[in-house]
């Protein structure tokens, strides 16, 4: 995860809150939040090597397939749940979103934008997009549910999920005002703070 | 590896969970490595049902039950940590148990040795800790029944333990666990040499009962897949048959293991240890496991194994969820482990790395 993305997420996480990070990878985001915000954080990860890295960082981690077990944490009173760059890998993204918003009042979701102009160029030339952000070919990728920024916001609307805040990143992974002008075309990644009443 | 084996006496005795009292008792203890000056490097390992104080090292054909995990440069590195292991109260490897002499009667306890529990073991280990002048454990860990003790430590003595490792264990035994154990106990009790537990007085040992119990136990410790790949439906060759009635390799293996075990393990201890396992419920007097974990401050590492059907990973998950609900810093990992329930005994790179990283983080 780039420093810039973790900085944006960091700003949305309250001090000393209870956080769960689905698809936490090596635990670096949680480690940063533990150090800077004194949070109580739990990571959920399926990859054994990454789980080892979380444990080496003293980041609590749970081995779990996100597709199966989000609802197991419903009784745990989380303040905020995070899913960074993972929602497009899930079998049922909308079910996952709703479950996350059931176990915590707020959730942070980040996702790659398939509407980004370079992806469109790829498609226009008759090929599935392969970009630095989406590096795998169609038959090797874990991204089974890619969408555009507009698609995602439509889903939020349909599911009555409020977008409390959103930030768009440019190709350098930086928060960009230019990307925000027409995110569906110019943003490489969307970062959302969601809430459900 | 500096190893010290000693029998430590507790003339002050102990009040047991059952309401009974032992006026005095001994614990057989083995330690590895050295206590550092600041006394911050102690690790207690708790043995499972048939284990004892010999956790590490190799000596005259005896290999420590967790030698793959404990030792110089191993997952629990004895160059860094002072590792303590004791034979549990009620055991048959030197600690006070059914084969010891009752000081009140000057006779062997036999069937009259009082029922002991996981809570009693942890309390006696706390007395041992005080005697060894250890102010706190850096970590307490174990597998199976040993994992239950580690969990109990975190509940009973939160200010004495920094980390706990609970492997291939559960907060309480399942109905099926109890059922299996009862069949094992029944085979011992129905051995004509059992004499209500007072077989030593009669100069006999209920070896057939222990053997059958152990054979059943072995089946539950292994995974179906492991058994299949190890033995398949292969026939035992005639020369290495333990007896004429044996056809298959798996039969021969169980017969051999059962017989060997019946020669070294005490029948009353078998009953006692399985009873302690059945009776343990981490919830104790509380409404739920979640309530019982309210006092826990240790970081937990819960490990389950996919091939373990005796204490399957979901049992560890229950502890993990209750821990998260109590804001305990707890991790839950499931590993492949090809040896079924016994997987917790064996080194794999992944298993050892996770233990090492947790203990050292």
Q: Give the CATH level 1 class of the largest domain in chain B.
A: Alpha Beta
Q: Give the percentage of residues in beta strands of chain B.
A: 15-25%
Q: Characterize the biggest β-sheet of chain B.
A: 8 strands, mixed
Largest sheet of chain A: 7 strands, mixed
Largest interface: A-B, 21 and 21 residues
How would the global form of chain B be characterised? globular
- Report the C-alpha radius of gyration of chain B, rounded: 20 Å
Low-confidence stretches of chain A: none
Low-confidence stretches of chain B: none
Q: What sequence of helices (H) and strands (E) makes up the elements of chain A?
A: HEHEHEHEHEHHEHHE
- Using the CA coordinates, give the radius of gyration of chain A: 16 Å
The domain count of chain B comes to 2
Task: Output the CATH topology of chain A.
Answer: Rossmann fold
- Helical region count of chain A? 9
Mean pLDDT reading of chain A: 94
CATH architecture of the largest domain in chain B: 3-Layer(aba) Sandwich
N→C terminal distance of chain B:
23 Å
Helix content of chain A: 25-40%
- SS elements, strand count of chain A: 7
Percentage of residues in helical conformation of chain B: 25-40%
Please explain how this structure is put together.
The complex is a heterodimer of chains A (197) and B (361). Chain A is α/β, with parallel strands linked by helices and 197 residues long. Chain A has a single domain, classed as Rossmann fold (3-Layer(aba) Sandwich). Helices cover 36% and strands 23% of the residues of chain A. A seven-stranded mixed sheet of chain A has the order 3-2-1-4-5-7-6, with helices on both faces. The longest helix of chain A has 11 residues, at 93-103. In chain A, 42% of the residues are buried. With 361 residues, chain B is α/β, with parallel strands linked by helices. Chain B folds into two domains: 3-172 and 280-360, Rossmann fold (3-Layer(aba) Sandwich), CATH 3.40.50; 177-275, Rna Polymerase Sigma Factor, Chain: A, CATH 1.10.1740.110. Helices cover 34% and strands 19% of the residues of chain B. Chain B has helices at 118-131, 145-156, 175-189, 207-221, 224-231, 249-264, 267-279, 289-292, 313-325, 349-360, and strands at 3-10, 14-15, 21-22, 25-32, 42-46, 58-59, 62-63, 70-71, 76-77, 82-86, 101-102, 107-108, 137-143, 161-167, 299-305, 330-335. In chain B, the strands form five sheets. Chain B has an eight-stranded mixed sheet with strand order 1-4-10-5-13-14-15-16, sandwiched between helices. In chain B, strands 2-3 form a two-stranded antiparallel sheet. In chain B, helix 1 packs across helix 2 and helix 3 (175-189) packs antiparallel against helix 7 (267-279). The chains are: A alpha/beta (197), B alpha/beta (361). At the A-B interface, helix 3 and strand 3 of A face helix 9, strand 16 and helix 10 of B.
């Amino acid at each position: 995860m780039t420093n810039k993305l973790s900085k944006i997420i960091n700003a949305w996480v309250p001090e000393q809150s209870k956080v769960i990070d689905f698809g936490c990878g090596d635990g670096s985001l949680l480690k940063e939040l533990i150090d800077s915000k004194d949070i109580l954080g739990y990571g959920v990860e399926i990859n054994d090597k990454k789980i080892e890295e979380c444990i080496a960082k003293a980041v609590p981690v749970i081995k779990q397939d996100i597709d199966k077990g989000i609802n197991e944490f419903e009784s745990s009173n989380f303040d905020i749940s995070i899913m960074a760059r993972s929602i497009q890998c899930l079998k049922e993204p909308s079910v996952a979103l709703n479950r996350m918003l059931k176990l915590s009042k707020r959730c942070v979701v980040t996702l790659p934008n398939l509407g980004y102009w370079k992806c469109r160029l790829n498609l226009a030339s008759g090929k599935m997009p392969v970009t630095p952000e989406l590096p795998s070919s169609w038959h090797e990728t874990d991204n089974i549910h890619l969408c555009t920024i507009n698609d995602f916001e439509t889903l939020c609307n349909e599911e009555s999920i409020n977008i409390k805040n959103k930030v768009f990143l440019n190709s350098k992974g930086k928060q960009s005002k230019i990307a925000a002008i027409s995110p569906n075309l110019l943003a490489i990644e969307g970062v959302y703070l969601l809430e459900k009443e | 590896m500096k190893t010290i084996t000693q029998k430590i006496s507790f003339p002050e005795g102990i009040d047991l969970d059952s309401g009974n009292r032992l006026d005095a008792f001994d614990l057989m203890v083995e330690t590895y490595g050295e206590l550092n000056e600041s006394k911050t490097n102690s690790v207690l390992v708790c043995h499972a049902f048939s284990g004892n104080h010999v956790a590490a090292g190799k000596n005259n054909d005896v290999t420590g039950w967790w030698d793959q995990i404990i030792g110089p440069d191993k997952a629990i590195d004895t160059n860094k940590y002072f590792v303590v292991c004791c034979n549990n109260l009620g055991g048959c490897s030197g600690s006070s148990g059914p084969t010891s002499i009752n000081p009140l009667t000057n006779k062997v306890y036999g069937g009259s040795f009082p029922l002991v529990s996981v809570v009693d073991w942890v309390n006696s280990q706390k007395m041992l800790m005080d005697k060894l002048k250890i102010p706190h454990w850096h970590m307490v860990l174990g597998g199976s029944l040993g994992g239950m003790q580690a969990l109990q430590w975190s509940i009973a003595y939160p200010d004495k333990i920094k980390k706990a490792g609970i492997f291939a264990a559960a907060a309480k035994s399942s109905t099926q666990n109890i059922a299996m154990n009862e069949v094992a106990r029944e085979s011992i009790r129905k051995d004509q040499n059992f004499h209500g537990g007072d077989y030593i007085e009669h100069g006999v040992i209920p070896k057939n009962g222990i053997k059958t119990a152990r054979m059943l136990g072995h089946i539950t410790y292994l995974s179906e897949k492991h058994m299949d790949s190890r033995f398949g439906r292969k026939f035992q060759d005639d020369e290495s048959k333990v007896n004429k009635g044996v056809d298959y390799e798996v039969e021969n293996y169980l017969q051999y293991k059962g017989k060997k075990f019946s020669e070294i393990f005490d029948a009353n201890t078998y009953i006692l240890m399985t009873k302690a396992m059945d009776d343990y419920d981490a919830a104790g007097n509380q409404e739920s496991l979640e309530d019982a974990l309210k006092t826990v401050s240790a970081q937990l590492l819960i490990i389950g194994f996919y091939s373990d059907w005796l204490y399957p990973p979901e049992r560890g998950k229950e502890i993990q969820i209750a821990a998260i609900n109590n804001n305990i810093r707890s991790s839950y990992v499931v590993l492949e482990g090809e040896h079924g329930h016994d997987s917790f005994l064996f080194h794999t790179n992944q298993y050892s790395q996770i233990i090492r990283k947790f203990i050292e983080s």
